[in-house]
Write a structure and sequence with these properties.
This protein is mainly α. It is built from twelve helices and no strands. The protein starts with 8 loop residues before the first helix and ends in a 10-residue tail after the last helix.
């Protein structure tokens, strides 16, 4: 059995969150240092220049680098402290999965899109007051502008680059941190899987700073959390997260290739209504598919040892 650190699970959780905070500052500092080097412009005008198409490549790669620092570093620090000899095992990085699990993950993510669409409608209907509405709308406008900049794809090569920057990189680094490290640490502390999934999903949604996408992202986090909990394999939520990102990016690419990618078009896509019945069908399918996924994972991991449990 793999020897683990004697540090109390609550302190392990505090260590992880503290490392996350430190890495966030480090990632932000790194962007400030590298921006003038990559663009030749001052950090004083950095905020406005980050929305300028002329600096799109710099924005894309700085985002990748900063997210790696912000999410991968604390996850590895936590894993190394808790399981010094095999830190990757603590994050559930292993190759023990099968094609049926991957296929079910893809189906679950497809069903989750239906549920997320309806939850976005619910999110928009929640009254928050005029002052907060202005704040949330300002954040949403900034987010939309950044997406338009990074998703401005005129060729297949642009699409493939965006696929790495917007779909693959976030899926890998965010899942390693949120599911591999944070959900694991929270469950080891609280000894309650649902609480760990809820807390992790809440923090996963909050970190995106988008009120109008809060409920859909929290639902996505819960779906990915259950995929991780049932499978004990970080690659499956990474695949699910990638599928979610890639589907959205493909929609943007189709609009961009037709010259129809604009703030208005993106907002229209976001504001597409999803009826209640479709959301309920999506919820039903997610539950049924997750139960099947759990059954498949139990068969796959019938030989799992205590040391491999969360």
């Amino acid at each position: 059995m793999q020897q683990r650190h004697s540090l109390h699970p609550a302190l392990q959780w505090v260590l992880l969150v503290a490392a996350w905070g430190g890495s966030f500052l480090l990632g932000s500092l790194l962007m400030l240092v590298l921006w003038p080097i990559l663009t030749g412009t001052s950090i004083i005008s950095m905020r406005s220049n980050m929305l300028d198409p002329a600096y799109a490549d710099a924005v894309r790669w700085l985002n990748v680098l900063s997210t790696i620092v912000i999410f991968i570093v604390p996850a590895l620090v936590y894993a190394k402290v808790v399981r010094s000899q095999q830190p990757l095992k603590q994050l559930r990085i292993n190759g023990n999965l099968n094609v049926r699990q991957v296929a079910l993950t893809a189906l679950i993510m497809g069903a989750a899109l239906m549920l997320s669409g309806w939850l976005a409608e619910v999110n928009k209907a929640i009254p928050v007051g005029e002052a907060l509405t202005k704040v949330f709308q300002s954040l949403e406008d900034t987010y939309t502008s950044q997406i338009l900049l990074m998703a401005n794809m005129q060729s297949l090569q642009d699409f493939l680059i965006a696929l790495v920057v917007i779909a693959i990189a976030p899926a890998v680094v965010e899942e390693l941190f949120f599911r591999g490290a944070l959900q694991t640490a929270t469950q080891q502390w609280l000894k309650h899987p649902l609480s760990a999934i809820l807390i992790t999903s809440f923090m996963f949604s909050v970190i995106h700073f988008s009120w109008y996408g809060f409920l859909p992202r929290m639902a996505l986090g819960m779906v990915l959390g259950y995929i991780f909990y049932y499978s004990q394999n970080i690659w499956l939520p990474i695949i699910g997260h990638f599928i979610n990102n890639a589907l959205a990016l493909t929609q943007l690419y189709l609009l961009s290739s037709k010259g129809q990618l604009s703030k208005a078009a993106l907002q229209a896509e976001i504001n597409t209504t999803m009826p209640l019945w479709m959301g309920l069908i999506g919820l039903f399918l997610v539950i049924v598919l997750l139960l099947q996924f759990r059954k498949e994972s139990l068969l796959q991991y019938a030989h799992r040892t205590d040391d491999d449990d969360v």
